[in-house]
Amino acid sequence: MIFLKEFSNSIKSNISQIDVRSRVNNFAQRAKNDPRGVGRELLILGFYIFFAWTYSHRLFSPTVSAITNLTRSVMFAEEQLNPSFIGVEAVTIRVSVAMLIFFLLAQNDFKSLFDPTNWKGWIVSAIAIVIAAIAPNLVAYFDLSPTSGLPLLLLGMPIMIGFALSTGDLQLIFSGNSNKFQLLRTGGSLLGFLMLCIYGIDFFPIISEDLPRTLSVLFVIVIMSSAYIIGKGDSNPDDMDRRNSAFFFTTISPLILYMVTRILFLQNNPDVNAAARWDIDWSFMDSANSFDMTGWPLIPEFGEDSRWTFYWAAVINSVRASLLAIVLCTILGIIIGVLRMSSNKVASGMATVYVELFRNFPLAILLFVITTQFGLSFPIFGSSEAWIFGSNSLETEGLLYASRQGMYLPLFELSRIILFVVILLFVSAVMRYMQRDGVDDSNQAVLRRSGIWGASIVLGLAVILGDYSTPVMDKVRPEASGSWIFVEGSYFKVTLMFSALVLGLTLFTASVVSEIVRGSIQSLPSGQIEAAVSLGLTPYQRLRLVILPQALRSMVPLLNSQYMNVWKNSSLAIVVSYNDVFYVISVMMNNVGKLIPLFILLLVTYQAGSLLISGIMNLYNARVTRVRI
Q1: Whole-model pTM?
Q2: Mean pLDDT of 620-626
Q3: Contact, 510 vs 332, CB < 8 A?
């Protein structure tokens, strides 16, 4: 009784601090003085409440239905008659794992892991992990109703946790530093809600009559109160960050719960055909592939290798086309971007025409135009006119053969290419060691570095050109004019499909890269360049010491997006009939019929590539932004 009396006094004290009567009087006075303004505020508030209600109710309704269908057991003669039944534990495990991940992100205790002795920093996250681990067993033990208690617990508890996060009482409670009001406000609310789900659902039938309505009311109350507290802006930065994280956690919870339960229901759909489509099983990828494709350096064997081998070969095809396009579009984009700022009207005009032409050209149409016209510009295969450099008198051997079947290049030894790369890496390491105390950008130092790099490249090229084979043509049947073939092991072939894809991606993306370069350079204050000129810096020194360190700060994040666009736009390789990952998986879908697993595999592939590019560019951006100006 003493505890309840103290809690009642705490509530009265907090209510008295709010001064309800004064707030009501102020609102009435405002409504009298500015009825339009108050009406507009009430209208906006009503819209927010309506939006929150509609958002939550539309998501909670199918989620409650899915949980009920997945956990309601209908047994007859020891046979399960509910085709969607997977059990309470299975549903609880998936929901708990999903919400635990987002709870840990909202709690943001990861820095505390580097200091394990500071147990107060990570105790809440540790207890959350333990609770998520034992939750399936606890839910199964209490045998909650699949139509009322269980949906209310699984869907309402994340809302209550969001409320607890916004108060910031959890860490104080688990560390033993909370007062009675905080203990009862947060701990009592969570425990009371848990008891309501387990024991009190039968005593309050109005709750279970319409669970989506009940959950939506709870969601609107928590989300609007959190928004009001955040909107006041009278908290310190740490409290504001915590409340913003809690607000986001509460807002996103209905969507996450809907996605988890929806996927589970689709995988266990009463419709057998629908359930088969959502059966996430990639065992069919272990079987032999039913079509052939070209690839390099991984060359899959038709009829022998599994679909996984063909998939990885297609991924490598996409990667090498994207990487080459990224390098080329960067070089071309920088050149075009600089030319647009040139005082030469012809150069700047041509650069402007290029940018406006290719930037407004749909990429799919550009690839179609290239693939239809690119091949026609080359002679037919077997023609002597296809030799471009260094053909012999019989026109059966040369350096470069470009025909409508592809370009045949000299074949260099892999070991010599690796040695060339090793030489460049060694020179780069030596140069970094020499510049450990700072970079010397004087004219003599620039000439010395240029000479070292030039000599290294010449040495590497000499190593590569020391032993190589040139393309050699042979006529299988001397009497047949169309029986020309190239001798195996004498050439390296670049298909026209690969060339068309790289050319299209390069031309399209370079037009955007050039604008990024131009805008980043022009955003610099003119005084920076004038100061560099007044100091007597050479054009190279101005570029190296003044322009690039500042321009790269705004250039790199934009280039990051464009490089990811190159990777994703490579999926249009189907226009030029290039065997990229999108094309290969599309053919697999038609042959196998496993649309959902293959679409998920395709999604993961492009997502992984985008994240890898983003990670590399973010590391480079962190290095650039470390440079002090």
Answers
A1: 0.77
A2: 79
A3: yes
